[in-house]
From TrEMBL:
GO terms for cellular component: nucleus. Residues 1-129 form the DDE-1 domain. Coiled coil: none annotated. This is DDE-1 domain-containing protein. It comes from the Eukaryota. The lineage of its organism: Eukaryota, Metazoa, Ecdysozoa, Arthropoda, Hexapoda. One of its GO terms (molecular function) is DNA binding.
Length: 270
């Protein structure tokens, strides 16, 4: 979402539809659209009809975290975890950023997001609902100040890890502030337009092959042996080791099934 897109929606969709509805019900053509403070929203002066009958108002800055529990650090940390996972994937491919991103599928993105969500502390999510649901002091064993310190420490660690990954991809000096700004999702309209135009210019001449190399079950089992050994040496969490074992079990069963099918077919040619 950008300010231009939102402004277009306001005048081309919202105003005509609201006007038609009010007229059809015999009501005065007057309306107010209440918005939260997002970078993608233009100012209130830009979002009003010439006669001022339909206009916008913005909620106070502190209202959003009060009425939207997930806005209190949860979304920010989720995005940081996601982007760290995405950068790790780019680094592991050993290619340029543009080439590596072309190989990332929607399924990959969902997996990255899944991992990011499950890395969140459940207590953090619980605390975020306190402004709406109210605090239960009897069950509130961890002070909010302590939890906030944990959030801060986790954010700093995530930022430092992200800086290391960025330096591995594109050597430069990055700061915590750089990562925070990147995580805010502020879109530059000019940059967005130039990127879109560049994509459209190159779309005719670029052909990305979607054909993937078929990996045998034996190759997977050999690779899993190395991964399992590495995991033991580096004290990887048991839950992650269990996931590896599940993959290994599936690869073994598929390999056995494939061998049985091949044996049945070859028996006809004896």
């Amino acid at each position: 979402m950008t300010q231009d897109i939102f402004k277009h929606w306001f005048f081309k969709q919202f105003v005509p539809e609201v006007t038609a509805f009010l007229k059809s019900t015999g009501l005065p053509v007057k309306a107010v659209l209440i918005l939260d403070n997002a970078p993608s929203h233009p100012s209130a002066d830009e979002l009003k009809t010439p006669n001022g009958a339909i206009f916008t108002m913005f909620m106070p800055p502190n209202v959003t975290p009060l009425i939207q529990p997930m806005d209190q650090n949860v979304l920010r940390l989720t995005k940081l975890y996601y982007r760290k996972s995405l950068l790790s994937s780019v680094v592991s491919k050993g290619e340029g950023v543009a080439e590596a991103l072309k190989t990332i599928t929607l399924k990959d993105a969902i997996i990255h997001l899944h991992k990011a969500w499950w890395k969140l502390d459940p207590l953090m999510i619980t605390k975020c609902w306190n402004p709406i649901l109210g605090k239960n002091e009897d069950q509130d064993n961890i002070p909010l100040a302590t939890l906030r310190k944990t959030w801060t420490n986790e954010t700093e660690k995530l930022n430092n890890d992200t800086i290391c990954l960025l330096e591995a991809i594109e050597p430069a000096e990055y700061t915590q502030q750089d990562v925070e700004e990147w995580n805010k999702d502020v879109i530059d309209n000019d940059g967005l337009e130039s990127e879109d135009s560049a994509d459209s210019e190159n779309s005719d001449c670029e052909v990305i092959s979607t054909e993937e190399k078929k990996i045998s079950h034996v190759e997977v089992l050999e690779a899993l042996k190395a991964v399992s050994q590495w995991s033991i040496q580096n004290l990887v969490d048991v839950s992650d080791m269990v996931a590896l074992k599940k993959i290994e079990e599936k690869a073994v069963m598929l390999n056995i099934t494939q061998n049985k099918i091949q044996t049945k077919i070859t028996s006809y040619f004896k």
